[in-house]
Amino acid sequence: MTSITKFEQLPNELILMCFSYFDFYYLYDIFYCLNQRFNQLIQYQTKIHIDLSLIPSRKFLTFCFQLKQLITTSQNYPLSIIAYDQQKLNLILEDDLFQETFSKLKSLTLSNIDTKTIYSIIFDKPVKLYQSLERFSLLYEISREDERSDDIERLCSNLISSKMKSLKYLKINFIPYSTGCEYDWYRRSDYVYLEFVELEKREKSLSHLETLIIENISDDDYYTKTTICFHVLIEYLLPCLPKLKNLIINSIHFEDYEWRQQDKASSTTTTNSILPLNLKIIQVCINSDNNNQDDMEKYTNLVRNFFINNTLFDVTTIKIFKINNENVL
User: pLDDT tens digits for 200-211?
Assistant: First the structure.
């Protein structure tokens, strides 16, 4: 049996497995042009995932031109992009030279970009990402452009719609708007409230989403949550998500829930607005601010009963159901 002493002696399958651990920029920079075999593997068989922050600014345009040339030959389009600022992202999405290169993007992860710009990136750019994206994640430092704008509401309501032709996975995080001055720092809210008002107003525009994650954000300076009211979840949001399988929400509040229920003749567990769901994973946390132990128990039961006792749900499909990190099945 011949022993393997060099990387080049590995079979293609193992080399590709090793390549998968590299961001594509580093992979191209290190291995491309070493030999014809590596060139062929990188050009035709490697899945292209790019973190724009890893590309030095002085090499950015050069790499984009090289990538365009490679893709023109191989038709192996980038699958995912991670961007931590809008300058590089705008360059590749707005420049006519690179539009075709990124026109079949499947996954996009963004941080440190305002929601008005994000809306434009998804829905207004010539690359038409709303047609191709299957996974979309908003991670850190995502906020509205100014304090009075409805950019977050507009973005979220359009992401939860049939406009997103292929979107299956959505993770959203937002932080409150801040001017950056010391006075504003201390007076701003710790929460961004998702209201999905547009979903209530318009006729049902059903989303293809299978996974929805509404996450917490934390860092060394402050702790903030993107939160949603329970009535918004069950009356506006879920009716637009007939294919949803995984629901993870790290902050549900009940601030408007009580008085809204007083105005309703029917119980929330018998609402007819929601479509049948086949959820597999439900993980939610109830916002404990200003809630005593009795309130927390009451709200926990409300959430549990809505999903477990709702006749429109097939509860047999639920594999994981946690409220405040405790199993409730």
Answer: 666 666 889 999
Specify the long-range contacts of residues 125-129, CB closer than 8 Å, at least 24 apart.
125/93, 125/94, 126/94, 126/96, 126/99, 127/93, 127/99, 127/102, 127/103, 128/103, 129/93, 129/105
Helix H or strand E encompassing 218: strand 216-218
Backbone angles phi, psi at 90, to 5 degrees: -60, -35
Separation between Cα atoms, residue 41 and residue 108, nearest integer Å:
24
What is the Rg, in whole angstroms, of the alpha carbon atoms belonging to the chain? 23
Q: What is the pLDDT of residues 271-327, one digit of tens each?
A: 445 566 789 999 999 877 666 777 888 889 899 988 887 766 777 888 999 998 899
- The whole-number pLDDT of residue 186 equals 46
DSSP state letter for 112: S
Per-residue pLDDT tens digits for 81-117: 999 888 888 888 877 777 777 888 899 999 888 898 8
pLDDT band for position 187 (cuts 50, 70, 90): very low
Which CA distances in Å does 104 have to 80, 158, 162?
9, 20, 18
Give the torsion sign (CA, 50, 55, 57, 62).
negative
Euclidean distance between CA atoms 182 and 119, whole angstroms: 29
CA pair distance 158, 191, nearest whole angstrom: 21
Contacts of 46 (CB under 8 A, 6+ apart): 16, 19, 20, 24, 27, 76
pTM: 0.85
| Residue partners of 185: CB distance under 8 A and separation at least 6 | 178
For 163, phi then psi, to 5°, come to -60, -35
